[in-house]
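Quick start: read one record
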Amino acid sequence: MSSRLNLVRTYLSQSGSSGDADRTQPLSEGTPNETVDSGFQTRTPDSTPVVQRRTIGRGLLTSGLGTTGTGPSGGESSGSDPQSSVASVAPSFTGRGRAQLMQALVRMPVETARSTELDESGSISSARVSTIGGGRGRFIQNLLNTASNVQSVVSPAPSNGSKKDDLSERMSQVTISATETAPVVKIGKRGAPVELMTNYIRLACDADRGIYEHEVRFHPVVDSKAARARYIAQHAAVIGNAKTFDGVKLFLPIKLPDVETILKSQNPVDGHEITIKIIYKRKQKMSECIHFYNILFQRIMKVLKMVEMARKNFDPSAPKLIPQHRLEIWPGYVSAVDEYEGGLMLNLDVSHRVLLQTTVLDHIKVLARMNPQDFKNMVTKSLLGAVILTRYNNKTYRIDDILFDENPTMTFMANGKPISYIEYYKQQYNIDIHDYKQPLLIHRKERRVAGHDKPQEMIMCLIPEICYLTGLTDEMRSDFKVMRDIASFTRITPNQRLNSMRQFCHNVNTNPEAKEILGVWGLRLDMDPLIMKGRCFDEEKVIFGNTEVGVGRNGDFNRAVTSNHMIQAVNIRNWLLIYTGKDSKVARSFMDCVERSCRPMGIQIAPPAVEVLNSDRTDQYVQALRTKIRNDTQIVVLICPTARDDRYAAIKRICCSEIPVPSQVINARTLSNEAKNRAIVQKIILQMNCKLGGTLWSIKIPFQSVMIAGIDTYHDPKQKSSSVSAFVASLNGNYTRWYSRACIQNKKEEFMNGLCASLEKSLKAYQKMNCALPEKIIIFRDGVGDGQLKMCAEYEIPQLQEACKLVETDYCPEFVFIVVQKRINTRMFKIDAQSNLDNPNPGTVLDHTVTRRNHFDYFLVPQSVRQGSVSPTHYIVVHNQPDYSPDVLQRLSYKLCYLYYNWPGSVRVPACCQYAHKMAYLIGQSVKRNPDEGLNDKLFYL
């Protein structure tokens, strides 16, 4: 009890502010040892005294927020006394003092007073303490949660017997052990158990090691940060070689034996003595050490001679060559350390980097031969933003500019003397530059320079002859043979991934330098990945118009789609077919195949109105659309001889915004294979039916009065145009009809403006179809990173709730908000009876041990993968107002993956998210304007 009261007394003495809640200055966490001088004045950095008063009970407590008075150099400012402390003016805590304490707490925010009470012994009871906003509430909560761990280190009384100084000394040495909140555990029960291996490797932490924070003070004050580091380095015998020092804070893997350690150093210039006081503050929480542990593994990667590219590390000593395409592939790893539900772990995944064996100069020469008149413009467009590799130092650079007016014979200043690039590379790397007329490549990099507030730009010139391209060109990506040969190296099996992970762990644990990096900080890496229990849901039943088929695991979804009737078919009576004269044969074959295939699928399609164009110019297609589309035209089908982005964009812009009508664009090459024509045309018919509002299949989802929505956002990769947000919401209880709305966002426009309007429109459309509003709304939000989770919880969800009141003033549905992440490095492997690894079956879920410590989340495998390794999808439940169980949300997420009508099977994300992605991409990439409202109740963007 006495320790707890001492902490409260310390808090009351240091939290000085006026009685108004909005003027409260919360005491920052982790710095309880602030000091105030004996005159109740706070010394601010500019040494201006500030008196702050607060009424407590019948007495008057005058206090202030003390500071250590750091000046520009980070040390103590003049006029601040490091030994000053809070005067012992806190009221008594027995009898009337108990009431005075309560009155002091009442003057905090209202939530504090309502959630705090005193027990019979006079101490504060933590049974009714809730989380309080602001630093003050968090500090009080920490006091109550850690009262049993508080240690008051009392020094001998001063020789003058001053009670004030004795209390100051005791309070300045109070240490609070860091508290860790309990992990969020949300584990489901449904499904058959399955043994899984993941790519998470446990990091064991020694109990007597960690990251201990100390504050360093110099007397007299030392302004230079480099000089401070040199003085600290003189005492390696006391603090050890493993340390991190930023000029003020010193982080050590061990706790020094004394709360205050006094060291002496000497100035190497004039020999005068420097006194260093190292004050122990606290042991950092595990969550505060994550960034530091990731830095340690970056150092380990350098020790293992890895080359960093785009935050991944690759091994240049073991390249895999593809000589027929002049390519090489570097194997590597992507790693991340974090604290999970099961403790501290390393997430390790195998990665690959494709490098071209051609230099940038070779690429420039090829473009120059293709178009000699305009080759500079072509080179600029091709190379700007590209990442190149210099093999003489194995470093990567981004090309920011190209200097065609300069060449390697130009000189620059090095060590105060002019030197040409030719001479420099010969002296430094023994490299001979042969082409003296090649341009120079520019790489710009910002770095912090002492004495400058803004980062200074550093310009580096590179020689194209010794720079190599990385990544794949567009031509390579469209070449099937190239991609097939690359996939033979990059698409690795689960067993190959396991061997690579074990090899990495072996390299770390057998390399003395790498092992020492972890060992000095009390870390130890296991040799094998984690093995744990997961669950696998039962096979899903897909409902068609005339039957119910199980296609979730081993069934052929594609065969089931084409051999069964649709649930709701829209007969096509009036439609328009546009093609060029040279594609007449392809068009006739297409119409014949449509006539033969439509009736077995349960749909009637009449002969179309035909428009034959003289050429494939874009204006010809635009003119035909504007003149031939009638009011009763249901859909327009266009057969184009080639794939051209400008023509496709012009067609979609007219059909989506100018003359709203569903459209289907077909590449003539797709229909040129007679053997595959029937299967291709069947899928086109299904797609046309969806765009007209038809329903292909459904899944049993036992919800009532629940609307499910998906959100995704498209961002222009070159940031030249606005971003597009898409909102897709269900309209019926079978979740087969969707209302889709896109909103183009300006760069400075709030994202929620369009999202709230989309929710309002969707609710009105739902109400029109069902004659009632939904009682619950489940939103799957795609395109959100870990750094934006807090924004979703504190910004997006409240505004969505307020948007519901625009439909009806008293309408308050319950919300579930789930973030969907598919670009993750987590891998899951099923262990069979022979202890071999294989990809898990669709419907496998993992919701413990490797899930986030502070979130309700789970991993779900939605698809069947036969080549390579499957990538699960990560779901984070940010808001769960109806308090759905993990089983309900996990099973719902899996079922929704089967409702995407543009693929005969399951997709990686729920169908509503995939629809939103398709719509946002179409509007952002091609249409670039809001589509007509008349198309919102149709899947016109498939």
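Residues 1-178 have pLDDT under 50 and may be disordered.
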